[in-house]
Design a protein that fits this description.
The structure is a homohexamer of 256-residue chains.
Chain A lengths: L3 H7 L3 E6 L4 H10 L3 E5 L7 H11 L6 E4 L5 H9 L4 E4 L5 H11 L12 H7 L4 H11 L1 E6 L2 H5 L1 H5 L6 E4 L1 H8 L10 H17 L2 E6 L2 H10 L3 E4 L2 H16 L4
Parallel strand pairs in A: 1-2, 1-8, 2-3, 3-4, 4-5, 5-6, 6-7, 7-8
Helix pairs in contact in A: 2-3, 4-5, 10-11
The structure holds magnesium ion (MG) (6 copies).
The site of one magnesium ion has 5 residues of chain F, from helix 10.
GO cellular component, one term (chains A, B, C, D, E, F): cytoplasm
Family (chains A, B, C, D, E, F): Belongs to the HpcH/HpaI aldolase family.
Protein name (chains A, B, C, D, E, F): 4-hydroxy-2-oxoheptanedioate aldolase
Chain lengths: 256, 256, 256, 256, 256, 256
């Protein structure tokens, strides 16, 4: 199947589902429903490592790229996610060059990084059998998204983008809005946050890397894709579920 | 909390969610989203017995009645569902008085039935501590829904409804439509099926029992509630999820 | 290790733990705590079949016999429990000779019964490697306890005991007390129930089989062992846990 | 993908793996390793219903047919296995026409049987979206294998084969050898058993149905395929694993 | 419900259960049995992250505060525990101001810390719907307990207590006794350890923060509450279970 | 049972199985099949922490030592593995004295390290009841294997071996071969890698510590044992399984 990297290169703004309930059937259902790719969220979502393996196993055979957002600083899990068949990893709270380098170390084989060899599960899922072919292409085809979601990260953005092995950034509008408001409010659409989204994109474009972002609503996703974001997370499983249930209930029991 | 029986008596057509993915968080989410009650489906859904226990444990503390549809003929599971905290059980393919009596045997304590004593888990979930108080009211408060979904069942409907301990019927439009079409098609809204839904309701009303039915769409649910059905299953978790995902995706990527 | 049958023959009134929470660590803990054997309860307890396998796997290596109480009428599970390493099965609601024969069919290899061959897991757990040696002794060493807990069962007791392959009976005082009270109360120590416990023992002794019974409290267990019961279930995991927690809390926070 | 029925029709003796350890990764690995199809064993294997669903979900996307052997008499599970994506079900201990008809009732939609409608999971796994197209072909494409493994079954073989909806038989050599030896021994290669294997095949051929059988060793599988068996189970997961481990250990630590 | 912080402020020495067996039913049972709150132990207990989520889900709806002890240095899990509905986190081996600051970073939103936004699961469990209301109160209401259990930690105690965002300390008597004995023995009631418990309390009081401690026995809990400890862990699930089992067994089989 | 340390001292080159599929039955099967010990791999294998606990629980009662390979840098898990009953831990990517010291801190009680007290589960599994006896011997009997698998590690080997508490090294031929080839290839038998294996052994012998290594094939294992390696991992569960399946399939369907 086409790699995540090649799909990003094809342009258009990939839409990923965002799955926090640790149930592989939900990840699978989102892949079948038309999302371009599937992201399993270990940071604010509820997956443990074995669950992530099961969830990836439900998505990869369907020919859709799968990503994992790892917990803060859990770069060992970034490597494990790749071993389990993920094509991309989103690392939260990459606030400095040091953070970025630690992330790259886990994501890329030597000499670029220090990823350890062991993709047995990924090979099973994809049918790969040629170790050296995989070694030769893995650093190019796996995608490391560094989350930019603090003032420190904004300040260091250029340097983070310059780290070899960081393939793109992923903007976290909730956290970024909080930090931009000095903790006073969470507002993904505050003017400061929206300006940041534009500024980050300019920097990413200049660096020749990918720009991703989380959108709670379709309206946000439309705006981010219009701005030029390459990779947009659209809602979460909890939102899909509630939206579907509410639509059906409201149709039967209209508000008085 | 108000019992399922008393909520049925209050009228208005209770709406139940229908959960087939064996993930307690989905059952819980549906209870929080506004359904009147939650049904876990073991027949065509994917739950095993331990999962059902976990799912009931996620719903009962929220003050919403929970029901379980058991596999065909698995009346031992009907008893177990009550032990685990369900207030109602839906038994598929009750085609004869003998089927109905076997179902009642599992659902009701002696002398009405032969339900075995052991509601330890239900007591923990509801805070009940008085065994004899529970024994005295359980047969009245737990609800046995016999599914009417074959020609044989239609033919025996009056006799099934006359079985003491059968509290209501639940219509399965898919199976009933197939049998009415001699296997030629599944069509929940075929004229024959719609006529059957009306006929069954008349018989149920005459017997002074509850009438339930499965609705795939809001339109069906509205019609069944308008007819006078007391208990209507509205869609399934797979439908809620797909509906929500599709709504979001379509908003972002309108069809060309 | 000594078989359950030989331990019963050694006399003294075996004490079994009774585990309903589907967590192998509890079954294991009870084996280590001094019970003579461990019973996993699928009828009113919360185990599914895979859980039972895990629970048996936690007990058998410790050299303690394990038993399973199956759901009502689930004789296929009786066979599976033996395959999974249980040495005994307790079948609820054996109310007739027909029930007893169906239970024996699942518990004993031909020609006595119709148990199907497949003890792969039991062999792994016990280190058995000689299929024909196991076949030769299994019918003798596995123990089939038929629960006597209804008026019908009492009436048929002699005939049930005469069924070849029924190794013993197990008295269910809660259900038996309900049926003896015509559904009016559950009272494991009602005079009628206590008389029944004595009468059943006389019949079992006459038939040369084993007598088991469930005791909620130590006082009941002492009485039943004094009467001559061979196998006594003492409390349940929920009781052990609550007793231990309450003892500690009460010691710290004495009631005013 | 080609249906199980069409693969059987293509001839050559399909080889199925036989998985008893309730771990989807083993089922998946066997599909990838070259077996023609995968069978999950619930009778003597260790799967519960949720596990079977996970295991089927790991096999079906790989384009290999999956089958489930259900516990004795658990025909409700036969229907559920089809709902979960199995293409075939093997039912143990089909000893009479009544057994065969009960099995057919669960496997085939009306009017041939009484299978209940609800293949939501199977549709998700296979991408099917046309309910009536599935209804029209399901009875033809799902395969009901009745196990012949007792003297009663042998005596009734012609009548069992004549039951419309029984697509084939599956021989259980362990049980059949025990019954043929009047319980004296289990010997899958006893002369009586080998004669039975030949006799059964003649009857099956005459009836125009499929013949399956379980082979513990490659030698048995070769013989059965040479005889003309259409479907041969080859070993079990425990055997594969032990064989692989032993081969590696023996290579490093040759016996003195 | 009243927050953990307000319950601590109400005084009296809260008693928490301590659950190491990764079974939500045990956590739930302890909440129902009378403990003031429930702690799930990931350090020496056996929980993984998904289990913790299930365990918290079983406790929070009962209106009892739940806490999680995270593995050493796993501050990402501290944030996740809050997201999953815990009100408090106990972090082991906080030996320095740097450790304390890293813990605070995970526990508190900006500008006090760097906790990332994502309490979807906590909102579902508690019914919270107002993101900014939660943001405004979370830093005040969630409780960060730093474990003091080494010589280094004792030496740095004042400075650790001075870290803004550390809400209290939790004393680990086993580890502290080992370190105070230079590794020679573990003795939770050694004179050195008891002196440390008093000294720590003085420092905590001076700093205006909460003091917690682990008590193996009721006697220890009584003493610590008498000293003025605000939060006392009383035994563990393994102790409750063994105590209850032993009490019942000893009542039936008194020692000779 | 004999400790892992004493078995290493007995010489001969212990053979460990290597289990990556998170299924306790596989770990158990490998212990029964003749391996000297069992290693559960959390780095490239698929285990989460709860699974590791279940897997260790399946191995330790069989009297075989169990080890865990933890994820990169997850030293908290090293402590937890010991608490769960592992006798040894293999830590990947120990590239410096600082890494080695952090690993020792997690593995050894004070004053040598900073391991925290809490072996409740290990005590249950082994029957240990004397806390101070365990404290006195644990640092000697648990085995800390530092993985040497990078150029940095090779350069620091002498210093790493000199760290008190590091009991041995474990060579990772895949990673070491990649780093020695500057990322150009993975080749466990490259001349550079084979030379490294010899050089490392010389250094380990000089330091009086244990040498372990991973062998994919029996031939590699034979060579490493002949060189003098004390502890050799032989293949993985995926290899055992595939080898066994392929052997059976090839015997039935010989290549044309
Ligand atoms: Mg964020
Ligand atoms: Mg139906
Ligand atoms: Mg009973
Ligand atoms: Mg058989
Ligand atoms: Mg400690
Ligand atoms: Mg390595």
């Amino acid at each position: 199947m086409a790699s995540l990297a090649s799909r990003l290169a094809a342009g258009g703004g990939l839409l990923t589902s965002w799955i926090g309930i640790p149930e592989p059937l939900l990840a699978e259902a989102s892949a079948r429903a038309g999302f371009d790719c599937v992201t399993l969220d270990m940071q604010h979502g509820l997956w443990g490592p074995e669950g992530v393996m099961r969830g990836l196993g439900a998505v990869v055979p369907l020919g859709k790229p799968a990503l994992v957002r790892v917990p803060v600083g859990d770069f060992a899990m970034a490597s494990r996610a790749l071993d389990m068949g993920a094509e991309g990893v989103i690392a939260p709270m990459i606030n400095s060059v040091a953070d970025a380098k630690a992330f790259v170390a886990a994501m890329k084989f030597p000499p670029l990084g220090a990823r350890s060899w062991g993709p047995t599960r990924a090979f099973a899922l994809t049918g790969e059998t040629d170790a050296n072919a995989y070694l030769a292409r893995a650093n190019r085809e796996t995608v490391a998204f560094a989350m930019i979601e603090t003032r420190e990260a904004l300040a260091a953005l250029g340097d983070i983008l310059a780290v070899d092995g960081i393939d793109g950034v992923f903007v976290g509008p909730s956290d970024l809005s909080i930090t931009l408001a000095h903790g006073a409010a969470v507002d993904q659409r505050s003017p400061a946050m929206e300006q940041a989204a534009r500024d980050i994109l300019v920097a990413v474009r200049a660096a020749g890397k990918w720009a991703g972002i989380f959108a709670i609503t379709p309206a946000q996703a439309i705006d981010y894709r219009a701005l030029g974001y390459d990779f947009v997370a659209l809602g979460t499983d909890s939102i899909y579920l509630r939206l579907g249930m509410t639509a059906m209930l409201d149709a039967v029991r209209p508000a008085g």
